[in-house]
Design a protein that fits this description.
elongated
Length: 78
């Protein structure tokens, strides 16, 4: 059996006495931060997977693979 919600909130440091609206805002901010971090981790995994794949856009030296540059935009300056 779970303790009442008010007791569970009081157990979390820094949240005792926080009004409901403030708590909701904190939760939304934390959710946004977690979503951003999850996207960052997923993008990092995607980059690492791309670098490790056989048909990678990069060669072992870290340079772009010239065979895969057909029509690719390498750098844009504006």
């Amino acid at each position: 059996m779970h303790p009442p919600l008010a007791d569970r909130i009081a157990e979390v440091p820094g949240t005792a006495g926080v009004a409901g609206d403030e708590q909701r805002e904190l939760n939304e901010n934390n959710r946004d931060l977690l979503d951003m971090l999850l996207r960052l981790v997923n993008n990092s995994v995607r980059v690492i997977t791309n670098l490790m794949s056989a048909d990678s856009d990069y060669i072992g030296s870290g340079q772009r693979n010239p065979a895969r540059m057909t029509g690719a935009v390498v750098c844009m300056k504006g």
